[in-house]
Design goal:
It is built from eight helices and five strands. The chain is of the alpha/beta class and 181 residues long. The structure holds 5-O-phosphono-beta-D-ribofuranose.
Length: 181
């Protein structure tokens, strides 16, 4: 079901190879209204050639689906879960309570409270059930953190992360040179 959702959610944006490889990472979100934020994570995984899946799982609207998703993730080959949610953002924490897999939470910016509600809901986990929380709306960093974790046991990916950091550095240095004239 995840592959089909991925295809329809990305409207053909993704490539077949990422869909057919066994996904290592799962990107889930509470609503399709979170997709404009969460698609940044998908883009990062595509750039780093990390197979991923992406779908909607709502802690409040589809609690049974959240259970089956979390309980089956490890046996499906998933190694890290990225969960985006907004408002009363219980999805990342609840998923982390259902599986030992590492969970990275993405607080979605909200219209009423600018995402502070999402941030606090995700970051304030009780001792024993960790959720790594990135900045409000920063799904790209969630993907990059997941990639760094995967890269500790994947030499090719490790090299790609190092190259990415070099590229970031070069970009800044070029801007500095330009500014200095
Ligand atoms: C959360 O409620 C979702 O993660 C979303 O950020 C928020 C609003 O959802 P919609 O009402 O837009 O579907 O569960």
């Amino acid at each position: 079901y995840v592959k089909n959702n991925l295809r329809s959610m990305l409207d053909g944006e993704t490539t077949e190879s990422h869909v057919s490889d066994t996904p290592q990472v799962s990107i889930i979100m509470g609503s399709d209204s979170d997709l404009p934020t969460m698609k940044d994570a998908a883009e990062i995984f595509r750039n780093f050639h990390v197979p991923f899946e992406m779908t909607i799982v709502s802690a409040h609207r589809t609690p049974e689906r959240m259970y089956s998703f979390a309980l089956s993730a490890k046996e499906r080959g998933i190694r890290i879960i990225i969960a985006g949610a907004g408002g009363a953002a219980h999805l990342p924490g609840m998923v982390a309570s259902l599986t030992p897999l590492p969970v990275i939470g993405v607080p979605i910016r909200t219209s009423s409270l600018d995402g502070f509600d999402s941030l606090l809901s995700i970051v304030q986990m009780p001792k024993g059930i960790p959720v790594a929380t990135v900045a409000i709306g920063n799904a790209a960093n969630a993907a990059l953190l997941a990639i760094r974790i995967l890269a500790t046991s994947d030499d090719e990916l490790w090299e790609r992360v190092k190259n990415y950091q070099e590229e970031l550095k070069d970009t800044v240095l070029k801007k500095a040179e330009k500014l200095e004239g």
